[in-house]
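Hi everyone, sorry if this is the wrong subforum. Our group has a chain we'd like a structural model of before ordering constructs, and none of us has done structure prediction before. Sequence below.
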Amino acid sequence: MEKDFEERNRRFQSKIQRFCLMDDTFMSKVFEDKKCTELLLRIILNRDDLIVDHVNCQQDIKNLQGRSIRMDILAHDRKGVIYNIEVQNDDAGADPKRARYNSSLLDANITEAGDKYDQLRETYVIFITRNDVLGSGLPIYHIDRTIEETGEKFEDETHIIYVNSSIQDETKLGKLMQDFWCKRGKEMNYDVLAERVSFFKEKKEGVNQMCEILDEVKEEGKNEGRLEGRKEGRKEGRLETLIELVGDGTLSILKAAEMANMSEEELKKYL
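Answer:
Right subforum, don't worry. Here is the predicted structure as tokens:
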């Protein structure tokens, strides 16, 4: 048993070392820590007074028809504001209608039968994207509804934010995006993130936790391959698993690309 345990850890070790915060499996573990999520939100929202009260990672949220998606991070602050934070490596995963869908799911899942509309909480959907999905060369985009005729804000308290991780300048946000692509804790800008990343990459307890998660994710990926009809509800974040399954011969590139909802050429960029 001990030998099998060591072999598993050895097999996953190089994979763990390649992880960065743009890999949603790894990112979700790091941001289970409230202080990490708090730092992230304070920088993105430019609010040093924000205090995170609760964080859930990789949580399944269902719509009224029972279809579910898995959210990378779901957090609440002390004022009751709800935040959904996603890393999006594929532009298709950051489609504006996906952001709208996530926003609607938050509303549907935070209300109970009989609740009044004024009891709806303020919500943020935040996409941290690999590329500049919205295409204007900006580091961050804030999307709020406005009244066209007056230009005034339509105060429904729903917000969508796109963060362009390709801009890694010397601002607070730029340094945060540097950290999202950094693979070594000692080279990161923010200590709270560096400590957490180093724990999962260098400490025995943290490495063991990551190995257990990778075992679970790999098994899910195999089940997903056998049950093709269930692939629709899975997240883009299973990309890492699909790549591993391609590498060990379990899946063809064509099949993995279909399951990831991308072309073969797009998938090959990650191999």
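For your construct planning: Strands lie at 52-62, 68-77, 82-88, 123-129, 140-143, 158-164. Residues 144 and 221 are 36 Å apart (CA to CA).
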